[in-house]
Task: structure prediction
Amino acid sequence: MIEIFSNGDILLILRYVTIIFIIMELINRDMTFFANVGADKNERGITSTAATHLSELATEIIAGCKAKLESASFVNGFVDIVGSANDKGKQVEIGYATHQLAEFNTLVARVGEMHSFCAWMREAVKTKERMMDEVSDVTLDDWAEANNIVLPKMPVREDELTEQNIIQTLSVAERCEYYSLEAKAAAYGKFIHPDEPFSIARRRLQEIMSKPITTQGEGSSLLIYRYENSVDEEDVEKVYLQLQSEHRDAEKRLNQIKTSIKKKLNIAKAEQTEAYKNKLDSYQSESQKINADFSSWQRREIEQISSLKIIVPNDLQSTFDYLSALDEKKTQTE
Result:
């Protein structure tokens, strides 16, 4: 069987699809908590602030109801002093009367209603906060991948150019001339250098011409050395001057080529720097635009989620009306 995709390709596809669903779910997840979900829904929508406030009020009511329920008593208590004329004594505990038993159902039902209201509203508020956190947690890379946006890569500065790079651009003839001149200048320079054999032999000839006889030792051991030139001194000078001239000419031409290479190198470096700067400017400009688009998307999504109104289901409508009326009454009395 022929494999269309490799394991690596399948993993990339799955990751891409997952990212798309994550971003799409940021808008649609748990939308049943919020108003304007469908045209057939008539539930009211309230802000998170109002939901939190009414939940706190409901918590106060729960506390009040629980206090009554927990302090309930079905016993009347009396205390008397021995010998008192009062048959029953003084009543110190009052239990519920028969007609008051029905209040238990009302209190328990009220606690249940308040808990239901708080559970809905608090879960809705938590859902909004979670949805906004999920939008904030989306990374630029995931957002770009989900939107099929290729993020620009930071340009890498090329290695600094050297003279060798410029030499490599010369033609065959130019490079041959350059290497030949280098070799010639080195070879001629070696022979005319003061410490090299030709220069040493030239100086010795000059010394002998001025002092052809030298002695060594004394008495019967005295040795007399006599020297004479094997070639004419002028011929040696001509050769030396010719070597100097050839060396100077080679050095002159070589320096001209080196100057040209250095000039080309400076121009190439400037062009290299300019090219890198243009790439860097383009990268920064493109990155700024993509970052701005990403930030704008995050801001819009968070604003959209933040503006969602929490619905009041029909089953909680009477509880909402009761709490709203109670809150309005409290506000008027404060």
